[in-house]
Amino acid sequence: MNLSNKVMGRLTRYRALLTEYFPKEKTYVFSHELAAMVSLSASQVRRDLMCLGYFGVPRYGYEVVELIKHINRVLDAGKLHNVAVVGAGNLGQALMTFLESRRATLRIIAAFDDDPRLSNRVINGVPCHPMERLEELVEGKEIRIAILCVPGSAAQRVADRLVKAGIKGILNFAPVPIRLPVGVALEEIDITSHLERVAFFTTTRATPSKERRPTQVRLRARS
Amino acid sequence: MNLSNKVMGRLTRYRALLTEYFPKEKTYVFSHELAAMVSLSASQVRRDLMCLGYFGVPRYGYEVVELIKHINRVLDAGKLHNVAVVGAGNLGQALMTFLESRRATLRIIAAFDDDPRLSNRVINGVPCHPMERLEELVEGKEIRIAILCVPGSAAQRVADRLVKAGIKGILNFAPVPIRLPVGVALEEIDITSHLERVAFFTTTRATPSKERRPTQVRLRARS
DNA sequence: GAAACGATGTGAATTAATTCACATTCCAAG
DNA sequence: CTTGGAATGTGAATTAATTCACATCGTTTC
After folding, report:
1. Does domain B5-75 have CATH number 3.40.50.1820?
2. CATH class of A81-194
3. How far is the CA of B41 from the C1' of C29 (A)?
4. Among A55, A92, A222, B216, whose CB has the most other CB atoms within 10 angstroms?
5. pLDDT (tens digit, 9 = 90+) per residue, A158-206?
């Protein structure tokens, strides 16, 4: 099954919900419960889960631990990635704390920064190194993924270095689009853009089309 | 014209590019240039720009300042919003610096936090207040938008308070989905989820479908 | 054990998003 | 002035995403 990145994105959300915010005592979950939690339709959820090769039981819903297990199998295929934060300023530091122990398969094992006041010490449990050592450590420690939190002006340059050093994926927080060779995964989070979007939808009455606002689980009519 | 939130999102990106990372000396921009910068197709860009009621000139492209003006008109309709950051921990502080003076129509004018060590002082140029004063200040200072950076466990509760205080839009960084009444705009940034997505696309060979990777401006064949 | 219920799984229909392809336009060159 | 070229604007086609609607099936109840 070739899952689209939309489906993939929703699967990660289902997993997060199930592992962290679903009552432990419930062993089964209904598609409409998941749907309500993420504001989607129940049929959407069922469609997404179809990609897993795991099937729920008709009257009961989906067995939670089994479901999680299958999402894991599909999403991270048992792989474990070492992650580095590049740029240990405000945002970088915030992310280190924020992502701390959130997902077992993704370990932040290093940070890098230009500023000598930041490098060569441990920040939020993550050892921070000077930029000079980037290549050496990315290779040596088998760092596969980088979180880029450098200023926009440095983003492309640093990204190029990372790629050359062998990084396989970049999560870019710098407020500029960066360009990578095919084969290196890229995900950009443009915070300003998101803020602007909120602003936009507060002014106009238009509601983002796809959104299904309050819980609203619709039960189909039976003929 | 009723723009979908996808179009709207891309428009913000075009604007950011044009205002911040486009050579000042160039007065015109081609659809394929914009497209290359954000990794989209040229026809996509043209479609998006159609929503603006502004038209480019055939051989020259789009006049940059005029284009920006029109995007502004559509996107923020001249409105100016006061914004507050709720939760002034690592992430909150990072966002204050990051969003500082990035967009003129969105002003971060206050922060709130439980922790007495953070409140009642100015952080990164933003006055930080104790949570008790949330309602009072949201109303008094006409704060329309909140950036939510509190821990997941507090997110829904704080969101409810914000809504009751009259907030019109929330940008949620807390790693839980929150639920708002219709009429209050919501945008969620799930950082973990994005990181997982990068990880996913590094392992598998699947490239996110819609993405058009390297610059690749395709010129149509003429019959 | 039979019947009713209430969930799933999934073709088919619908709706949304994107791309194609080309007529149109306007500038530039001759 | 005329011609050619290189871009735009946009119906139409295509592709992707979502929703509908219902057959199906495992549980529970009687």
Report:
1. no
2. alpha beta
3. 31
4. A92
5. 999 999 999 999 999 999 999 999 899 999 999 999 999 999 999 654 4
